[in-house]
Amino acid sequence: MKRTGKIYAAAFLCIGLGIALTGGGILAGGWPGIAVGKDGIRMADEFYKEAYRIEKTELEEFSSADIKIHSGNFYILPSDGFYLEYCLSGTDAEPSYTVADKKLTFKQTGDLEFYIMNFTWGRDEEEYYVKLYVPEDIYLDTLQLNGDSGNAFLDKLLADNVDIELSCGNLEAGQMQAEEVKLSLKSGNVSFESLLANKAMDIQMDFGNLTGEELSAEMFTVDSGYGNLRLTRANVDSAELFLNSGNLTCEQLSAEKELSISLESGELKAEKASAQRLEIDSNYGNVTLGELEAQEAEISADSGNVKAQSCSSTSLAVTAQSGEVNIQESVFSDGSFSLSSGNLKLLQLSAQSLNISSNYGNVYLELSDEPSEYSMKLRTQYGSIQAPAAGSLLSDGSEENFSVQGSSEKNIEVFCESGDISIKQKKSST
Fold first, then answer.
1. CA 288 → CA 166, 249, 291, 327, distances in Å?
2. Which of 122, 224, 376, 408 is 20 to 30 A from 385 via CA?
3. What is the pLDDT of residues 115-150, one digit of tens each?
4. pTM score, two decimals?
């Protein structure tokens, strides 16, 4: 017991001595901690250096900007002239900037430092930043921004070409208008109020969410690794959207020509989707649409349900491997549905030609037109058939076949390997 008491006493003595030495070092101007960087292991007081800073300084007029920042936030702010202001870490290389031939070049490089042991209490935490002041009505030729660690805040930006690359940081934009826009983020979110590209808009994101209010572009492409995409209104000529893991949500998504959406793992929700040609490919997740309008539409879902409030299309093809298909109002000329496992329900149906193939699941059709207008060929190997028109029904054990000749060129063909087929006429509201 006495030996244990001596050990505790020695331990508390060492702790007290350590605190006393630490306090003495701080009073002498030092600071506890160990930093590891390109120069090896250093003491914390060597790591902390006075920040590089300049107050708001007037610049010559420029039409292009090339900005490279190692660590710090970047701002574009409206002003009555061209100004630059910054406060950046003293541990990195000293920033340099020039304006030549109406081009602003700003550069700050550095290497990431990290701590094995660090005590930061008592030190002032300040923001490292670069602020670029530009007249609100100035239309830049190009803006190139490359940031290693830090956020970008663009209050309003007008430019021919915008190229922004952020390794670790968010991009927040108010209004951005350009001929071409290219955004590349490795880890960070993108949010904007209004984003307009008269030509191409290309967004690539490894980790992070994309959120926007108004978007317009001639060609809109998105390649997202892990993150959600949420748009309020998007109007484009053509679009190719790929999400590896994440949900896509949009109130209005309109394309004058082609709209291609591919999701590996995630849900698609759109209140209104329209295009001349629409293609949706979903591997794992539900597809939920409000209003769908397209000359040609192809929807493929490997594992998930496909639901739509209304669908108007000249040609519609739906393939579902494992999941239900439910459309509340279906109007199309040519329709093709292929289901491996799941029920199919088409309500308020009006079609010129409809072909349905189902392996395991029931098929329910509610016709808006007179059933007598349709020629029907219905067959189920294991199930029953209910049809509103008088025709020929043949039953052979578990298999049933139904056929009838309609009064017009409209036709319906349904084959079920295992499932019931039910066709009814919509009840009159009167």
1. 33, 10, 10, 10
2. 408
3. 444 444 444 457 899 999 999 889 999 999 999 999
4. 0.85
| Cα–Cα distance for residue pair 189/265, rounded to 1 Å | 19
| Torsions phi, psi for 20 (to 5 deg) | -65, -45
159-198: per-residue pLDDT in tens? 999 999 999 999 999 999 999 999 999 999 999 999 999 9
**DSSP structure string for 168-209:** E--EEEEEEEEEEEEEEEEE--EEEEEEEEEEEEEEEEEE--
Give dist(CA 389, CA 84) in Å, integer: 79
The pair of three-digit structure tokens given for residue 311, joined into one six-digit string: 């669908």
Per-residue DSSP letter, 415: E
CA 341/CA 269 separation, integer angstroms: 22
Q: What's 389's DSSP letter?
A: S
Burial of 45 (0-12, 13-18, 19+ CB in 10 A): middle
Q: Which residues pair with 316 in a beta bridge?
A: 297, 335
**CB neighbourhood size of 164 (10 A):** 24
Q: Which of 179, 76, 180 is nearest to 133 (CA)?
A: 76
CB contact at 8 A, 252 and 234:
yes
- Written as six digits, the tokens of 66 are 């090339």
Tokens describing residue 91:
């541990």
